[in-house]
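Appendix B, record 7
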Amino acid sequence: MEHRHDRGPIRWTRLIPLIAAVGAAALGITSCGSDTSSSASSTPDPAALDGKTYVSDDATNQVVPGSGPLTVSFGAKGQISVNGGCNGHGGTAAFDGGTITVSGLVGTMMACPPPRDKVDGWINTLFESPVTWRLDGRTLTLKGDDVTLTLNERVTRAVAGTTWTVKALVRNEAVESSAVIERVKPTVRIGADGSFTGFAGCNQMHGDATVVGSGSEQKVTFGPIATTRKMCPPEVMDVEQAVTAVLDGEVAAVVDGDELRLTNVKNPTIGLRLTAAPATAGN
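Structure tokens (predicted):
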């Protein structure tokens, strides 16, 4: 009996260090797994942004003065372009892991009506300090000191089949935006069948238009344009006459995502700046 009694404690004495060893091994495995998971979190690659343009979504538009949209483009050699609905801004972006530091941001000097006149200062404030960034598929998230912005990669629209809204006039090679243009919202639409319809600001337009070429640079040839005969206030008729003057004969068309620039070939000092209307715009 004493012999059996002695063997019990001997077994437990040997088993306790064995349990401790197994537990330590298990902890080692868990720790290794944790390290692997931590190392798997990759640093964002700035190259994924090269040559792409991102446009703010509806929620972000609400925080942009003038309701945006906020457009951010990334070019070669760290170039960045930003537009919030008034002037365009260009500078250099330096990436450090998940942060972007923008330097040398310089904008054009176009005057814009309220509340868009506040957006340029807002952009400068946003980028005066480093912002964090994250890219999930085609969605870019930028986070500043007190704001988080969501933008989606912009897909270039087709000239034909898209309804374009005039945002600014080009006269004497100067870009003009105004409250009148914002209010009347002239539109241009070219059908796949060569038809042309639109609204000049006061009167409806229709006629024929042929699109030649593909890609970002194309040409459109407009036939004679017929309009309704309504009369509107002088400032509205001024916008209408400027729109119809551009859509006369051959017009050079440059597409950049949801943005379209039209320049009259006979008189290259006049043109239009347009954006894809919400019904046809896409991110």
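Remarks on this record: The longest strand covers residues 88-96. The chain has a mean pLDDT of 85.
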